[in-house]
Design goal:
Order of helices and strands: HEHEHEHEEHEHEHEHEHHEHHHEEEEH
Number of strands: 14
Distance between the termini: 61 Å
Shape: globular
Number of helices: 14
Helix content: 40-55%
CATH architecture of the largest domain: 3-Layer(aba) Sandwich
Low-confidence stretches: 1-25
Length: 405
């Protein structure tokens, strides 16, 4: 009797080992490769760049320590220079030659849209943290892409609505002339009009830009109460600096429709005080955000932007999905990611919709006055928490082919 019991136990153990080996064998070459394709040298390098690479590596290290998977994880990185053709060529090279499973960050909309097409063609994943256009989960959506951190609808809905409520009824837009800027201008303009405001016009500047004088002059001549900055990164900070130099502010107000904590840090509180902005993350919001951000700061010497914090979160969720399924097959991993709630320091009870949009709270911030800041990087008042169903475009308005109506 004991012999039979022992034999059964051995057989069960062998079966378990074989099943485990079979599951792990589904992870290609027993290695998960993550390619961080970002802006390492240009306009958006402060908001993503090396900080996005660092956040990804932090997630990998934490995952390996906590989960102890049988597979290995490798992180590659490259500079897409904010150009769609460079991004698509690098993604194709990574997918075809280097066995990369997922390309992440993609801080510029043009690079995200280009890589999404390659990812779909090669049946690999694309996880977007940095790019903003709603096109990613709207008319250009696909089933291998997830849009993680924020989008133009969310930041426009938060910031523009707040400014209109404060009496900023007439607007003129200074817009980066590519897909992201166009999307941000449209989404913000819709919010302004819905709030009873008026859009007096817009002007589009080259991307990236450096001299905004002629564009700011047109905005000044419009007589609008508010100049909406439908740009980001150094385009935004340079616009704000030059508006102050030319005496446009404080006669006309500026609304930074996509601003990051790195922009506020660069410009200083004296210049940015009182401005509203909408963020998905603030390092000083609670004990969890502070703990992670201080770890990041130890290596980066700067507090993380929402894009960088989002990179940690999306990487961890992706790796956990691979462990749960025992596979790096994109369909299985995407299904697991979409059915599993996201809950970490970055987002609580987040869910991924069928269009690939991570549904999460957003936060309306107001920049503190210099005398309100008590310690380094103490920059924001959290004025409102915007629930997911208000922050993001409703599915009823979606043009995504994945959405069933």
């Amino acid at each position: 009797m004991q012999t039979k019991t022992l034999a059964s136990a051995v057989a069960a153990a062998c079966t378990s080992l074989l099943l485990g080996a079979a599951a792990q064998a589904q992870v290609s070459d027993n290695v998960v490769k993550i390619g961080v394709l970002t802006d390492l040298s240009g306009t958006y390098s402060d908001i993503s760049g090396q900080g996005s690479v660092l956040a990804t590596k932090m997630a990998v290290d934490d995952f390996m320590a906590a989960e102890k998977p049988a597979f290995k994880v490798e992180v590659l990185s490259a500079d897409h220079q904010n150009k769609g053709d460079i991004a698509s060529n690098k993604a194709r090279e990574w997918y075809e030659r280097d066995g990369v499973d997922v390309v992440t960050d993609l801080v510029t909309t043009s690079t995200a849209l280009a890589v999404m097409k390659v990812a779909k063609e090669k049946n690999r994943a694309a996880l977007v943290s940095g790019a903003a256009s709603t096109r990613i989960t709207n008319e250009d959506c696909n089933d291998v892409t997830v849009h993680w951190t924020y989008d133009t609808y969310a930041v426009a809905n938060g910031t523009a609505a707040a400014v209109v409520k404060q009496g900023g009824k007439s607007w003129f837009f200074l817009t980066a002339d590519y897909a992201f800027g166009h999307s941000l201008e449209k989404d913000a303009g819709d919010v302004v009009k819905a709030g009873g405001g008026e859009v007096k016009g817009s002007v589009r500047h080259p991307f990236p830009g450096s001299d905004f004088s002629s564009f700011l002059l047109k905005a000044q001549q419009s007589g609008a109460q508010v100049i909406g900055l439908a740009n980001a990164g150094s385009d935004t900070t340079n616009s704000i600096k030059q508006a102050a130099e030319f005496g446009i502010t404080p006669k006309q107000s500026l609304a930074g429709l996509l601003m990051f904590i790195s922009d506020v840090h660069s410009l200083g509180l004296k210049v940015t005080q009182g401005m509203y902005l909408t963020e998905a993350f603030y390092w000083d919001r609670n004990d969890e955000t502070r703990a992670w951000s201080k770890r990041f700061f130890e290596q980066q010497k700067r507090m993380p932007t929402m894009v960088q914090a989002g990179m940690y979160s999306l990487t961890m969720h992706y790796l956990k999905a691979i462990k749960a399924t025992g596979s790096d097959d994109v369909a299985k991993v995407m299904a697991q990611m979409k059915k599993t709630p996201v809950s970490d320091f970055f987002v609580k009870n987040g869910t991924i919709r069928e269009d690939g949009r991570l549904m999460r709270e957003m936060y309306l911030m107001q920049v503190k006055k210099p005398d309100e800041s008590k310690y380094p990087w103490d920059y924001y008042h959290v004025r409102a928490t915007i629930p997911p169903n208000e922050a993001f475009q409703p599915l009823s308005a979606s043009k995504c082919a994945l959405v069933k109506k």
